[in-house]
Amino acid sequence: MSTPADPALTLLTLLASGASAAELSAVDAPEARALALRVRAAFDTRRRREAELSALVDTARDLASMRDPAGVLDAIARAYDNPTIRRGVVRTLGSALAGSSLREVPIPGAPEGQRP
């Protein structure tokens, strides 16, 4: 791919092609580079959030199809072991309950002091 002469256009081209933060940092255009890095970070955050929500939807779909209460509880425990799902649950509940007073409840079998 040929590189445009204008550094801002170079950054836009790199962003459009999914370039990493390191590739963006190599362009010599301080103000435009800072903005491009913020856009890249926003893309990364959105992609991570999408993966978390997708994992939650998949888990909810699986749980909805189960009939055995013990099996449902086992599936919930297994799903919570998945860091992507755990982050999604924590973020989703945190957003939904903002302003509510929450209390941390210890999880049996979880290492002491471990938080999601």
Number of E strands? 0
- Rg is 21 Å
Low-confidence runs (pLDDT<50, min 5 residues)? none
Global morphology: elongated
Q: What structural class results from the helix and strand content?
A: mainly alpha
Q: Quickly count the domains.
A: 1
Quaternary status: single chain
Tell me the strand percentage band: under 5%
Q: What does the largest sheet look like?
A: none
Amino-to-carboxy terminus distance: 43 Å
What number is the mean pLDDT? 78
Describe the structure.
The protein is an all-alpha fold and 116 residues long. It has one domain. Helix 3 packs across helix 5. The longest helix is centred in the middle third of the chain and has 35 residues. The chain is elongated, with a radius of gyration of 21 Å. The N and C termini lie far apart (43 Å). The mean pLDDT is 78.
Topology diagram in text:
Elements: H1 7-16, H2 21-25, H3 30-64, H4 69-80, H5 83-96
Task: Please sum up the structure shown.
By secondary structure, the chain is mostly helical. It contains 5 helices and no strands.
Features of this protein?
single chain; elongated; 116 residues; mainly alpha; 66% helix
